[in-house]
Structures
1.
Amino acid sequence: MHIAIAGNIGAGKTTLTELLSKHYKWDTHYEDVDENPYLLDFYDDMQRWSFNLQVYYLNSRFTQIQDIKESKNTIIQDRTIHEDAYIFAPNLHSMGLMSTRDFENYFSLFNLMESFISAPDLLIYLRASVPKLVNNIQKRGREYEESIRLDYLKRLNERYEAWISTYDSGKLLIIDIDENSFHDNPEDLGKIVSQIDAELHGLF
């Protein structure tokens, strides 16, 4: 099975991926942050590096999906290929940080890749307000994230909500992070586990 966690920067995807993999003994696929050769440059000059960054992520996540497809184990994935294509790249384009030529090139590449992949068996979307995202980003203290603008997070949130409102590719579970502190509250994590169990093994 393929479980995927979606959500804005700072929503808690990596933490929830870790916690659920421990609970269920699932294998993990994380977003490639430490090894990403473009991330620091991107936050320093978004316009110059946006296309390079998005193509890197596209390749990285497509490779992950191939690994997931070939695995006999259940795998939980931190962020999906669809978020890059439907949220991050279009947002950069609309903000004037990616040229139309680059965006169209990028999207044609995504469309080709999408024809070879299938949706996750369960998509878990972590919904969070901008203040909650900012609080989480500040807590983890990644240096390159200090320059992220509030309007950037707000635009991403709007695109996430638009995407999720029309998502019909498979089972979907929405977790409101403003109301659930799973990272330091075992009871809240238990609620998420119960919801996942119901989605994967329930009668509805």
2.
Amino acid sequence: MIKSGLVSVTFRKLSPEEIIDLVAQAGMDGIEWGGDIHVPHGDTKRAAEVRKMTADAGLTVAAYGSYYKVGHEEDSVPFEDVVATAVELGAPTIRVWAGSKGSGDADDEYRGLVVQDSQRIAALAGKAGMTVSYEFHPGTLTDTSESAVKLLEEVAHENIRTCWQPPSELEVDHCVESLKAVARWLTNVHAYYCDKASGESLPLAEGQDAWKRYLAVIAAMDGEHYVMLEFVKDNWPEVFGQDAATLKGWL
């Protein structure tokens, strides 16, 4: 089953109340709340407030988007604080960054650090009844599907999952293969469409051919997956409404 939603950091300047109104008016299902501004790491009181506001609007918390960098515990907020916040928020999964080096720059020792810390935080999240999902992103060990699969297999923990988003440098056929490669670990997908040359966000409707193929792959998977809008043209709430209608129409 595919559900629709929004990654809250798309609109960092808006309050949680304003974001909830946008998502509810768009008729979407849920929100991934960001840990950098909307639900700060360690602020369990705010997390409980946002959880209630989200539920009162008939929406679900799809994930907690933390900015914990796996393998860099000394530079990140304590993961125990992240878990405590996610518990009060009612998040089923915590998004984290798979280190801070791309797969081409990481040696075996560095990968080992990320694997070890992944297993540690997976256990902590598991005790709270949650999973951990890697951000699928450049500059980390999930910058390619090949590296992501290798990492997931090395960690080999039932509570470690991954998000996915289409790598901007790949053609659609290769993106489809990338998505299929991580399917068994997939939690949520971040949806956007951008100009390959400039990186500028474009209306989601312009990516119809690509996204209909991605959604078909996701629809064939078992379980529940959120496809959540992240980035909209010019960061305008009005454009979000258009993109939301486009995504819901495809679903």
3.
Amino acid sequence: MKLLESVEQPTPNGSIPSDALLATYNLVVRYGAAVALDGVSMYVGKGEMVALIGPNGAGKSTLLNTLSGINRPAAGKIICNGKLAHVPEGRQLFPELTVEDNLRLGAYRGGSRDPSPMYELFPQLHRLRHRRAGGLSGGEQQMVAIGRALMAHPDIVAVDELSQGLAPIVVSDIANHLVSLNKQNGTAVLLVEQNAQLALDITSRAYVLENGRISKEGRSADLARDPAVHKAYLGGQVSR
């Protein structure tokens, strides 16, 4: 992805700060005649944790794949003022390689290939470092996928469906690691997640993506109290 100079431009629901690490402006992505993203404008600032929630098929993974250069936008603009690392949906590890080799692949474009910092972040991985990634549990694989992304020393990490297929206690543990990473290192996080409760609990701002468009945005705590968001994604009416 090309790194561009930071600019400030209006979005449909406000403005994007000039120091935003990552931003999209009126982004449009099509699959043939089908429109997957229709004028999406959003941003992640330095050191922020931002959530993107929405139903299946809303375009959440399409947005991350477009930010990472996998998809080509039909219109709009992407601005990235730092290094972005992507933790893809389903982890997408190399199952025949060891944990350590999977981690080292994250630094293939330069930088240190020493995985020691990842073992400090995820101590469980140190004892598993010589195990094949394909033989790990889902939670362990998710730790490897996040660690592999962090080996690139990114300014922002985009995590697609952190909780997918994992037990709640495992999700909570990995989420806590992400929060610690953000607080200690200042690494910005874009969390794309169907588990809206988890996403809104650990982030400061959030966007709701529906039918390829941003339908709501704001502080995570405010969206969690929004009756429409609560009914659609949090299981009922807002507590009074």
